[in-house]
Amino acid sequence: xxxxxxxxxxxxxxxxxxxxxxxxxxxxxxxxxxxxxxxxxxxxxxxxxxxxxxxxxxxxxxxxxxxxxxxxxxxxxxxxxxxxxxxxxxxxxxxxxxxxxxxxxxxxxxxxxxxxxxxxxxxxxxxxxxxxxxxxxxxxxxxxxxxxxxxxxxxxxxxxxxxxxxxxxxxxxxxxxxxxxxxxxxxxxxxxxxxxxxxxxxxxxxxxxxxxxxxxxxxxxxxxxxxxxxxxxxxxxxxxxxxxxxxxxxxxxxxxxxxxxxxxxxxxxxxxxxxxxxxxxxxxxxxxxxxxxxxxxxxxxxxxxxxxxxxxxxxxxxxxxxxxxxxxxxxxxxxxxxxxxxxxxxxxxxxxxxxxxxxxxxxxxxx
Length: 367
Ligand SMILES: Cc1cc2nc3c(=O)[nH]c(=O)nc-3n(C[C@H](O)[C@H](O)[C@H](O)COP(=O)(O)OP(=O)(O)OC[C@H]3O[C@@H](n4cnc5c(N)ncnc54)[C@H](O)[C@@H]3O)c2cc1C
Known about the structure:
Number of strands: 20
Order of helices and strands: EHEEHEEEEHEEEEHEEEEHHEEEEEHHHH
CATH class of the largest domain: Alpha Beta
CATH topology of the largest domain: FAD/NAD(P)-binding domain
Oligomer: single chain
CATH superfamily of the largest domain: FAD/NAD(P)-binding domain
Number of domains: 2
Bound molecules: flavin-adenine dinucleotide
Shape: globular
CATH architecture of the largest domain: 3-Layer(bba) Sandwich
Helix content: 25-40%
Largest sheet: 9 strands, mixed
Radius of gyration: 21 Å
């Protein structure tokens, strides 16, 4: 089958690699060479897909423990992979290292062209795309992995639902004095959730969701940010210093109810963008990509897209809802709320069954 992939972000790249492995003829377009540097927590379901398509990840660090707590209160929940019956929960990797591992597996480089127009399949014609060079292509299937910002979605007559969180993420890297191998932290610190992810040896990625104006102010005052982080990171990590400049990203929830048209399917952030609190955006999208690749083995493109979406939709809606509920639940600096969630975590920590369920949801494992 001839397939065009629009967008060379992580989702477009992984989809393309998986499709080429299946023998499809893929052309991929993306004009941008500047990619954001992010710390990505890859779930077991993502690692299994990468493994299946022959992508080995040497960079990054296995995630074996996750400590969840309310900053300044005693209750906490420690998820240990070994206790839950798994060697690891996933792996944390820099997005650039992931991209490097992937580009070793693609047959040609991404064509550095923008796509200016997409048309769905009609009764007489295949779907079509028009490139900025003026070339028109008529593949069997168009995969739109443009991150949702290009306007191509709307030009197909699809409408994205939006819910701004009134929150921004400030993210970057820190170097710590006393790293705790394989342990990630999810801390609720009143101003919003702070995730701290081990990337390699003493380097950690941090993602802190907070008020947009405060995030901007902090990004312009690195010393104030460093001291706020020093107070927020767990004491066991010791002293910290910056390993990269912090970056601020506005957070929004965005999704297209039925992300396809005849001959065209949306994947990745273009189909749904969710709150990063649980580190699920990429993992969720790839579970959908996996189903699509499987369905394309035995069905024509339009049937395959429908089958894959119907199998994945519940997972998408549940993950989106869980991520935004976590944000809403842990985002406010209210003492009664903090006390209740802290007590909840202390009780939850006693239940191996509950901890396994939480871990498996994050890993993309159904049990
Ligand atoms: C702070 C933060 C932390 C996160 N942490 C995690 C995590 O730990 N785990 C996880 O699973 N997910 C995480 N996510 C989510 C994850 O980053 C996204 O799901 C993922 O990056 C989306 O990738 P994408 O390929 O869909 O889109 P993008 O990365 O936005 O790529 C889209 C590409 O399309 C190209 N493009 C746009 N328009 C056109 C056009 N007209 N023609 C050609 N090309 C075009 C763009 O240049 C771009 O390169 C996080 C997100 C945030 C914001």
